[in-house]
Amino acid sequence: MKKKEEVIIPVVRxxxxxxKRTVDRGGVRVxxxxxxxxxxxxVSTTYEDIEIEHxxxxxxxxxxxxxxxxxxxxxxxxxxxxxxxxxxILLREEVYIRRKKIKTPKTETVRLxxxxxxxxxxxxxxxx
Length: 128
Fold this sequence. Notes:
This protein has no helices and four strands. 0% of the residues lie in helices and 65% in strands.
């Protein structure tokens, strides 16, 4: 009897290895600018003023008149005693003081800023 021969069959196995590497594909450049410009704007201011008016009355009164208010007008009576055969009150005049609001237009120059961004793309374009 013959001895059987042994046959050795090599078993091969392949392995895959994955590696990564960085490839420079270009980039973008961002530039930021602040621009200033002057702008003229209208601004109004308000203030109060008074107007004084003397109003002659020359009326005889039975009793003294009191200071009174009529809307925006303050009325102050100015009285005088006059000697006649009897004493009577003569309303000589009244002083009217009125409030007025006066608006004056005013122009001012203000400096305003605005930011702008510029993006430059230097990456290569892909063909489609």
